[in-house]
C-alpha cells in the first residue's frame, strides 16, 4: 500500500492548509480530527509519519503520542508535534515523549515540508538499514565475520545520523526559546531603570509638597491615609528592585540556553565546561522538582579549577544531557528503593584536572545501581532497560562515540546494586 502522512488537527483551516501543501509537494495525505480517531486509523493502516496537534478535544496530542509509543506496532512511527504553545517546557515534554520534531503555529509551509522530508528520509534510511541487517544475517556461516563487521558499520552510520539530527533539532529548539525569551525581557529590563528614576522624581515632589503644605485639604488627607501613602513611597522602590532581580535572572536563563544550543559549531574551540554543565542542569531543572510522592532531586556541585578545554561544545552538552537525564530517570523510577530523609535522591557532579593533559567530569546518582550484566551492555547501540517509548538505547552509545571518537577521551561507568551509578568522562585539554 502507498505510504501516506496522517495529519491530526481539530481545526479545519489548519487541516486544509497542511493537506493542500503536502499534496502539492507530492505526498499522500489522510486526516483525523481528534486523538481517538487518529489511533483507530493507525491501528488498521500505518502512516509513514504523523503531524499531531497538541491541543485537541478528548485526549490531547501528548496523550495520543503516549498511546502510540506504548504500542509495539506503532511506536516507531515518527511524530511531529504542531502547537501554538511557545513555552520551552511544552516543547521539551513533547520531545521527551518520543516526538522527533516540533512545529510552532502559525505554520511556514516551507519549514513544514522541509522537516517532513528530513524525517521521512531518516525513517527510510532506518528501514533500509534494518532490511540490510536482515539480509546480512541470512548469509551462510562462512560470512558471519563479514556480517558482524557490516552490521557494526551500518549501526555506526545510523547512530551518527541520529546524533546529528537530534543535536541539530534540540539546538534549534533551545536557541529559538532563548530568542523568544530575550526580546520581551530586554524590553522589561531596559524600562526598569527609567521607571525607578520616575518614581524617585515623583517621590521627591510629593515630599516637597508635604514639606511646604503640611496640612493638606481633608480629601487629600483621607485618600493618603486610605492608600497608606508613606508605605507606598517606601515599598515601591523595593518592588522595582525585585523586578530588576527577576529580569536579570531570566536574562541569565536566556544566556544559559544560548550557551547550551551551540550545536552549529563544527570545529573545536576553547570552552568553559562548567558553563555547559550549568546550562544542561538548568534545562533539566523542571524534571528534578518535587512531584507527588517523589521528593526533589538535590544537585551537589563539586567543581575543581578547570582551564578552558578545547572541544565541540554542542556535542559535549549532548553528553551531559544524556547522562543527567539517565540519572534523573534512575532516581525517579526508584526501582523499589525506599527514599528516606537521610537518603534523598541526589546527583553529584564534580570536575578535576587529573594530569597535565586531561580533565575528568564525574556524574553520580544515589539510585539503585546496576547489575554487572546490565553494566556490560549499557554502551551498546539499541540496548535499554527502559520501557517502550521511554528510551531508544542510543543515548549512552552516542555519548561514548562523542567522548572517545570525537574527542579522544574515555567514558566509563562505576555501578553496583544498591550503590548508585557514576559516569566518569575523561577528555584531553586540547
Descriptive overview:
By secondary structure, the protein is of the alpha/beta class. It is 53% helix and 15% strand. The protein contains twelve helices and twelve strands. The strands form three sheets. A five-stranded parallel beta sheet has the order 2-1-3-4-5, with helices on both faces. A five-stranded mixed beta sheet has the order 7-9-10-12-11. A two-stranded antiparallel sheet has the order 6-8. α1 links the parallel β1 and β2. α6 packs antiparallel against α8 and α9 packs across α10. The longest helix has 69 residues. The chain is globular, with a radius of gyration of 27 Å. About 1% of the residues have low confidence.
Detail the topology: elements first, then pairings.
Elements lengths: L4 E4 L3 H13 L4 E4 L2 H10 L4 E5 L7 H9 L9 E5 L4 H9 L4 E4 L4 H29 L6 H69 L5 H10 L1 H32 L8 E3 L1 H12 L13 E5 L6 E3 L1 H21 L12 E10 L2 E8 L6 H4 L19 H12 L3 E6 L5 E8 L2
Parallel strand pairs: 1-2, 1-3, 3-4, 4-5, 7-9
Antiparallel strand pairs: 6-8, 9-10, 10-12, 11-12
Supply database-style keywords.
about 55% helix; alpha/beta; about 425 residues; 12 helices; about 15% strand; 5-stranded mixed β-sheet; 5-stranded parallel β-sheet
How do the strands line up in the largest sheet? 2-1-3-4-5
Indicate the structural class. alpha/beta
Helix content: 40-55%
Largest sheet: 5 strands, parallel
By oligomeric state, this entry counts as: single chain
Task: Categorize the overall geometry.
Answer: globular
Count of discrete alpha- or pi-helical segments spanning 4 or more residues: 12
Strand residue content: 15-25%
| H and E string | EHEHEHEHEHHHHEHEEHEEHHEE
Uncertain runs are: 335-339
From the N-terminal CA to the C-terminal CA, the straight-line distance is 53 Å
Q: Could you tell me the number of beta strands?
A: 12
Amino acid at each position: 500500500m502507498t505510504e501516506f502522512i496522517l495529519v491530526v488537527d481539530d481545526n479545519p483551516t489548519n487541516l486544509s492548509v497542511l493537506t493542500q501543501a503536502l499534496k502539492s509537494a507530492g505526498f499522500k495525505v489522510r486526516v483525523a480530527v481528534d486523538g481517538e480517531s487518529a489511533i483507530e486509523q493507525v491501528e488498521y493502516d500505518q502512516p509513514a509519519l504523523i503531524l499531531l496537534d497538541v491541543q485537541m478535544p478528548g485526549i490531547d496530542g501528548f496523550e495520543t503520542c503516549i498511546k502510540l509509543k506504548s504500542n509495539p506496532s506503532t511506536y516507531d512511527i515518527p511524530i511531529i508535534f504542531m502547537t501554538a504553545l511557545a513555552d520551552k517546557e511544552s516543547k521539551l515534554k513533547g520531545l521527551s515523549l518520543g516526538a522527533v520534531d516540533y512545529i510552532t503555529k502559525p505554520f511556514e509551509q516551507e519549514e513544514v515540508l522541509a522537516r517532513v522530508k528530513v524525517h521521512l528520509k531518516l525513517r527510510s534510511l532506518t528501514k533500509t538499514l534494518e532490511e540490510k541487517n536482515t539480509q546480512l544475517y541470512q548469509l551462510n556461516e562462512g560470512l558471519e565475520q563479514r556480517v558482524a563487521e557490516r552490521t557494526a558499520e551500518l549501526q555506526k552510520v545510523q547512530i551518527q545520523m541520529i546524533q546529528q539530527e537530534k543535536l541539530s533539532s534540540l539546538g534549534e529548539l533551545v536557541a529559538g526559546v532563548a530568542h523568544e525569551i530575550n526580546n520581551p525581557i530586554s524590553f522589561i529590563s531596559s524600562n526598569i531603570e527609567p521607571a525607578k528614576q520616575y518614581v524617585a522624581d515623583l517621590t521627591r515632589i510629593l515630599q516637597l509638597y508635604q514639606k511646604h503644605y503640611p496640612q493638606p485639604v481633608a480629601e487629600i488627607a483621607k485618600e493618603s491615609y486610605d492608600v497608606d501613602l508613606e508605605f507606598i513611597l517606601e515599598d515601591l522602590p523595593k518592588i522595582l528592585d525585585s523586578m530588576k532581580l527577576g529580569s536579570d535572572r531570566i536574562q541569565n536563563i536566556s544566556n544559559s540556553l544560548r550557551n547550551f544550543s551551540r550545536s552549529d559549531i563544527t570545529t573545536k574551540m576553547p570552552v568553559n565546561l562548567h558553563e555547559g554543565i550549568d546550562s544542561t542542569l538548568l534545562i533539566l531543572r523542571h524534571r528534578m522538582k518535587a512531584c507527588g510522592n517523589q521528593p526533589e532531586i538535590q544537585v551537589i556541585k563539586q567543581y575543581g579549577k578547570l582551564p578552558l578545554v578545547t572541544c565541540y561544545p554542542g556535542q559535549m552538552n549532548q553528553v551531559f544531557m544524556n547522562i543527567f537525564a539517565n540519572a534523573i530517570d534512575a532516581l525517579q523510577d526508584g526501582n523499589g528503593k525506599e527514599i528516606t530523609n537521610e537518603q534523598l535522591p541526589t546527583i553529584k557532579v564534580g570536575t578535576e584536572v587529573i594530569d597535565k593533559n586531561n580533565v575528568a567530569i564525574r556524574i553520580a546518582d544515589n539510585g539503585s545501581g546496576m547489575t554487572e550484566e546490565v553494566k556490560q551492555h549499557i554502551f551498546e547501540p539499541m540496548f535499554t532497560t527502559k520501557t517502550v517509548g521511554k528510551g531508544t538505547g542510543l543515548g549512552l552509545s552516542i555519548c561514548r562515540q562523542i567522548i572517545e571518537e570525537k574527542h579522544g577521551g574515555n567514558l566509563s561507568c562505576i555501578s553496583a546494586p544498591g550503590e548508585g551509578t557514576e559516569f566518569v568522562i575523561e577528555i584531553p585539554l586540547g
